[in-house]
Amino acid sequence: MELVEVVLYVRDMRRAVRFYRDTLGLEVAHESDRWTTFHTGACTLGLHAIENRELGRAEPDPTFLVSDATVERTRLAFAGVDVTEIREPVAGVQVFDARDPDGNRFSLESRAAPPG
Known about the structure:
2,3-Dihydroxybiphenyl 1,2-Dioxygenase, domain 1, 2 domains, 2 helices
């Protein structure tokens, strides 16, 4: 299993993009009003716009790549881990969230092989 993405929740996407792109010098991979990602080597940094949050209260969301989200969700649920239903935010990507023993959220994601 490898860490593939860390998500940070931000109130002002434009301000956050300027900071990570212009101040830190990260290269934008994808940009929209609600979701922006940056190339950071082996791990992607994702910014997710959220309107109502207290500063310092929204949690990072490390995302781990697995070969099959359905199998992994079943395995973790059987082990007593609190897991959500699988969702498909974009075609070919299946993701679900879980919580560690301290209540910290993380996500597990599988990606369909690219066509061709």
